[in-house]
Amino acid sequence: MESSQSTLILTQDELKKIAAYKAVEFVESDTVLGLGTGSTACYAVARIGELLQQGKLKNIVGIPTSKKTHEQAVSVGIPLSDLDNYPVLDLAIDGADEVDPDLNLVKGRGGCLLREKMVEGASKKFVVIVDETKLVKHLGGSGLAMPVEVVPFCWKYTLERLQKMFVHAGCVAKLRIISENGEPFVTDNGNYIIDLYLEKEIGDLRVASDEILRLAGVAEHGICLDMATTLIVAGELGVTIKNK
Ligand SMILES: O=C(CO)[C@H](O)[C@H](O)COP(=O)(O)O
After folding, report:
1. Strands of 105-106's sheet in order across
2. Where do the domains of the chain lie?
3. 64: left (phi > 0), else alpha (psi -120 to 50), else beta?
4. Domain 12-136+225-236, what fold?
5. Residue 235: strand pairing partners
6. DSSP states along 156-220
7. Which of 116, 149, 211, 220 is catalytic?
8. Which class would CATH give 146-220?
9. 109 C-alpha vs ligand 1 centroid, how far in Å?
10. Ligand 1 pocket, 95 CB below 6 A?
11. From which residue to which does any coiled coil extend (predicted)?
12. Nearest residue CA, atom 3 of ligand 1?
């Protein structure tokens, strides 16, 4: 008789949900929460709404990091406010595009980096939720974009300067375009996104971060140093939690 062994293979989406639900276990009543943006964070927002409706969480104020998250939070019944009213948050939960071993992040492939960095930077604790595909040895290492939000005014000028700045890393800078209509992607703040594609390591991240921010046309970039306090990674072998 043949014995059959079943292997449980979870989809990336299922892993995102597992990480998000784990993070929501850290949420307490009577707190101000930063609500992230993206396909991972939206599971956390949905779960917080569910727990509020069930009365298992009470007196939560959410600070959304995008218009999209604002809409979702309203639809699941999370009371909302903003940083003007709550300049210090208790906890923020959000996804990331890349996470290095020191819990530095790349954010913003969803285009919401400026608000995310404002809200999550104002939070006492910032829990990052990812599936294991987001782990990299060094930022930029996934070969995917490192986003920079720029003002639309003379964006080509800014793009060229960004590309020159990281020529040593084989940088190719591209304006983010909406594939459906060929128009530039516009952020919630009315800005454009320039995506940096790097062939090699960018070098010292703090130096890179400061240099990008010194360019007058730049609003913000997606490199997040020393922001995450906890990382929750969901993988095939289970969930791991790392604190900084
Ligand atoms: O920074 C972000 C949006 O600006 C997202 O958090 C990041 O892109 C991760 O997204 P997802 O959870 O969909 O993989």
Report:
1. 98-99, 105-106, 223-224
2. 12-136+225-236, 146-220
3. beta
4. Rossmann fold (3.40.50)
5. 238
6. HHHHHHHHHHTGGGT-EEEE-B-TTT-PBP--TTS-EEEEEE-SS--S-HHHHHHHHHHSTTEEE
7. 116
8. alpha beta
9. 6
10. yes
11. none
12. 110
ipTM here: 0.98
- Amino acid identity for residue 68 in this structure: K
Q: For the segment 132-147, what is each residue's pLDDT rounded down to a tens digit?
A: 999 999 998 788 899 9
225 touches 156 (CB < 8 A): no
Q: For the chain, what is the total number of helices (H) and then of strands (E)?
A: 6, 13
* pTM: predicted TM-score of the whole model, two decimal places: 0.94
CA–CA gap between residue 168 and residue 157 (Å, rounded): 19
236 is catalytic: no
114-133 pLDDT, tens digit per residue, is 999 999 999 999 999 999 99
Mutate to test the pocket of ligand 1, among 39, 116, 129 (most ligand atoms within 8 A of CB): 39
